[in-house]
Specification:
The complex is a heterodimer of chains A (319) and B (485). With 319 residues, chain A is of the alpha+beta class. Chain A contains five helices and 18 strands. In chain B, the strands form six sheets. Chain B has an eight-stranded mixed sheet with strand order 2-14-3-13-12-1-9-6, sandwiched between helices. A two-stranded antiparallel sheet of chain B has the order 4-5. In chain B, strands 7-8 form a two-stranded antiparallel ribbon. Chain B has one domain. The chains are: A alpha+beta (319), B alpha/beta (485).
Chain lengths: 319, 485
């Protein structure tokens, strides 16, 4: 269940309204009485991603508001990226984002990371912000170390880097990507252990995803995903399974675009077995070749041995 | 849980390939006789490797007023409460322990500086430590990938030296941390078995089968069917070795061949008389780590191998009572020492609990080895059990490292002591600062080789590293002082 989809009187709430349909724990109340209105904390609004519910109304306290938290650009592999260093910044022609080129080497809490970017004045601009998880993933190269293009970004800090994306569970965790290896984790937001790389650039409102037949169509990335989840005995089996469906296995970066950090499990609920962990084709050689896996229970990634049984979520370009 | 029971005769038949403890000086490079050779019971070595690193205040037992000088403590006269939290589970083995304080991964630290100078691209401290811990030499910086071990690792090197036909040179059990620690050579990871059932089958001479089954063909069965005799297989290995032996050793080897033939015939008939220490009626039970400990004990007591590396499974917060919402690496490890930007005392305590859990595992490993009588002591008394941590701390220190050596190695080490080394060696850190640190762990590797009888070898991996700021070099040759009896 998406955080915030807990109630009902969506007065003034951002994106979509809703009826009186669920209680805080997700069950239908036995009785809905006016007394409930005397306890406003018991109700929250149905808010769009990155919006928060304040006094029964959705509010935007985050630069990511108005977006779905999804990619509105193709999630291209590192070899196809068009990153260009320009003084103290790096421009990405694919995503339209501009990145802070060098990090300051200071580890911070999540709140301090947000604040640092909000106060950054760089390249003649002051509209910097902490990147969303899916944005930070567009500069990650999870196949090697350093895990980003040091020719463009200069020296790398091989450590955890905060994103603006937070856990939907309300447990004070935020997403971070480990640039020492490549995994995405949920980390305790109050601990000052994360580094910061700020970004700026317009974020388009995400297009509505739709289901067409057996496919979930995402115009933002120009991809469509199999609604069905396929069992696979291994990574190779997963690849064959997808090929037999006229599709392919996704890359780790494409899987990042399917994560919805505002939802529990962390993806579109219209997908079958939405919480499953699935294979990617993105590999990492630790002496033994491993492949990246996206676990949609929380939208985190990890490496697995390629001979393990795991599920496949197939993908293909929108025809 | 998997439990295995094998009959003694079948096991000993499988062991017929490797029974005996023939020692061939000419394969040892002409080195002098050693304690390991002089004793009837061989010396073995077991490496126990754990990820991340300990939390300094929770393992230090050093005298804070004497940090500038070497000093030591008598563990045997200490009360349990005087042991630091992390080492407290080891208290019951205190007479057989050496707790070493303030070693330095000097080669790994130096490589960070090399990467900074443009020699290679991967300076990830996990990667460098994993590559250097058992090799002590420069990594292979793989284009478009990561840095990985750049030489044959110590466990395999010792296995080469103490191995002989019919006995496994070494065995590597356990789990993956990131990169491996053990290498056949540069960028060549050594095989590691992660499944205790498969490791058991390998040791017992069975092909991999259902762990609960006792019906699979033995290696002996297959050899008999395919080659007529297990001896034929051993003979092929002997023929490979014979030309390289002196005449005296060649005679010994031929005698050993005859012994194996007799054993083979004996086991084919009414059965042999196995050593009391080698108990093939073993039951493997408990979790995977416990099963690997049992396997290592069996391997040593039956002389299946004399070198085992056990890579511990990475623990998760639930394993040591921390909240499951915490990330082990980022939340706990990276915020566990006071120099870390995100230092949090609670995370330091969790990191100490994490390593206390590993100390419990290590104590259990010693329990297994100490439970098997052998000669006038136990298997543990004749074994060198070395606990190495990937890093010094959860925040990637690579100096001020701890190390535990247990078992004494047939009396080679003078155990029952906590040994602190003063910071008298200069090592250049990657950011250009030359710091005074404790001795390089390269010296420990030499000490371990000496404990295993390789006393003519005075270095392993790099023999020295340069110190840019002074133009001088830090020698990595020679054993670590103050360890031996």
């Amino acid at each position: 269940m998406r955080l915030g989809v807990l109630i009902a009187l969506a007065v003034g709430c951002g994106s979509s309204g809703g009826g009186v349909d669920a209680s805080v724990d997700g069950s239908v109340p036995d009785a809905f009485t006016p007394d409930a209105f005397e306890e406003p904390d018991a109700f929250v609004c149905e808010c769009a991603p990155f919006e928060t519910c304040v006094d029964g109304a959705c509010a935007c306290e985050n630069d990511l508001c108005g977006t779905a938290g999804f990619a509105t650009f193709p999630m291209v592999p590192p070899t196809d990226r068009t990153l260009t260093a320009r003084g103290e910044v790096v421009d990405d022609a694919v995503t339209g984002l501009t990145w802070e080129r060098a990090m300051d080497g200071v580890s911070r809490t999540h709140a301090d990371a947000l604040e640092r970017c909000a106060s950054l004045d760089l390249d003649g601009h002051d509209d910097w912000r902490l990147p969303a998880r899916v944005e930070l993933a567009t500069i990650l190269d999870a196949t090697r170390t350093p895990t980003l293009d040091v020719e463009v970004f200069g020296a790398a800090i091989e450590d955890y880097v905060w994103t603006a994306s937070v856990s939907p569970s309300g447990d004070a965790r935020a997403y971070a990507i480990y640039f020492g290896q490549g995994e995405t984790i949920l980390a305790a937001a109050e601990l000052a252990g994360g580094h910061v790389r700020c970004v700026r650039g317009a974020r388009d409102a995400a297009t509505e995803r739709r289901v067409e037949g057996e496919w979930l169509v995402d115009e933002g990335t120009s991809l469509e995903w199999s609604v069905a989840l396929e069992d696979a005995a291994s990574l190779a089996d997963a690849q064959l399974t997808c090929e037999s469906r006229g599709a392919r296995l996704p890359t780790l970066y494409e899987l990042h675009s399917l994560v919805d950090e505002g939802a529990e499990p962390a993806t579109d609920p219209r997908l079958e077995s939405a919480a499953a962990a699935v294979w990617s084709t993105t590999e990492r050689d630790f002496g033994e070749v491993l492949a990246w896996v996206m676990d949609f229970a929380e939208g985190t990634s990890d490496l697995r041995a390629v001979d393990q049984p795991l599920a496949a979520r197939c993908v293909r370009p929108i025809p | 849980m998997s439990t295995f029971r094998k009959d003694r005769r079948r096991f000993m038949t499988a062991l017929g390939l490797g029974a005996g403890s023939l020692f061939l000086p000419s394969r040892m490079g002409g080195r002098s006789q050693t304690k390991a050779q002089e004793t009837e019971i061989p010396t073995r070595i077991l490496f126990f490797l754990t990820p991340h690193g300990m939390t300094p205040p929770f393992w230090h037992m050093r005298q804070e007023a004497m940090l500038a000088a070497d000093h030591e403590l008598d563990l045997t006269s200490m009360a349990e409460g005087d042991f630091a939290q992390i080492f407290r589970p080891l208290y019951r083995h205190r007479q057989k322990l050496l707790l070493l304080d303030n070693l330095t991964q000097a080669t790994s630290i130096r490589e960070s500086g090399r990467v900074r100078d443009g020699i290679g691209h991967d300076a990830n401290e996990h990667h460098l430590s994993q590559a250097h811990l058992m090799t002590g030499t420069w990594t292979v910086q793989r284009d478009g990938s990561t840095a990985i071990g750049g030489g044959r690792s110590l466990d395999l090197h010792i296995g080469d030296m103490v191995g002989q036909p019919g006995r496994f040179a070494n065995r590597i059990y356990g789990f993956r941390h990131q990169h491996p620690y053990s290498f056949l050579g540069p960028n060549e990871p050594a095989p590691r078995e992660q499944n205790p059932a498969t490791a058991f089958a390998d040791m017992m001479g069975y092909l991999p089968t259902d762990p609960g089954m006792d019906t699979g063909p033995t290696r002996e069965d297959l050899l008999r069917a395919g080659r007529g005799s297990a001896l034929d297989f051993a003979a092929a290995e002997f023929d490979h070795v014979l030309p390289r032996l002196g005449s005296e050793d060649a005679d010994k080897l031929r005698a050993h061949q005859r012994l194996i033939r007799e054993l083979e015939l004996s086991f084919s008939g009414v059965g042999g008389t196995p050593s009391i220490a080698c108990d093939p009626d073993v039951s493997l039970s408990g979790n995977e780590m416990t099963q690997f400990m049992q396997l290592a004990t069996l391997a040593f007591s039956c002389d299946v191998t004399r070198v085992v590396t056990l890579v511990a499974r990475g623990l998760q917060p639930a394993d040591f009572g921390a909240p499951t919402t915490l990330n082990m690496h980022q939340d706990i490890a990276h915020n566990s020492t006071e120099n870390a930007g995100g230092y949090d005392p609670q995370m330091a305590q969790y990191m100490a609990d994490y390593y206390t859990a590993y100390a419990n595992q290590f104590a259990e490993l010693l329990d297994h080895l100490d439970a098997v009588p052998e000669g006038d002591g136990t298997v543990l008394d004749h074994t060198c059990v070395v606990w190495l941590t990937e890093l010094s701390t959860g925040t990637h220190w690579r100096d001020r490292m701890p190390c535990v050596v247990a078992g004494g190695a047939n009396g080679y080490f003078d155990t029952g002591r906590y040994v602190y080394y003063a910071p008298t060696n200069t090592v250049p850190f990657s950011y250009g600062r030359a710091s005074e640190v404790g001795p390089a762990d390269s010296h420990l590797r030499v000490s371990l080789m000496h404990a295993m009888g390789l006393t003519d070898q005075n270095s392993f991996g790099l023999e020295e590293i340069d110190i840019k700021s002074s133009g001088s070099a830090l020698s990595l040759r020679g054993p670590l002082p103050r360890l031996t009896a």
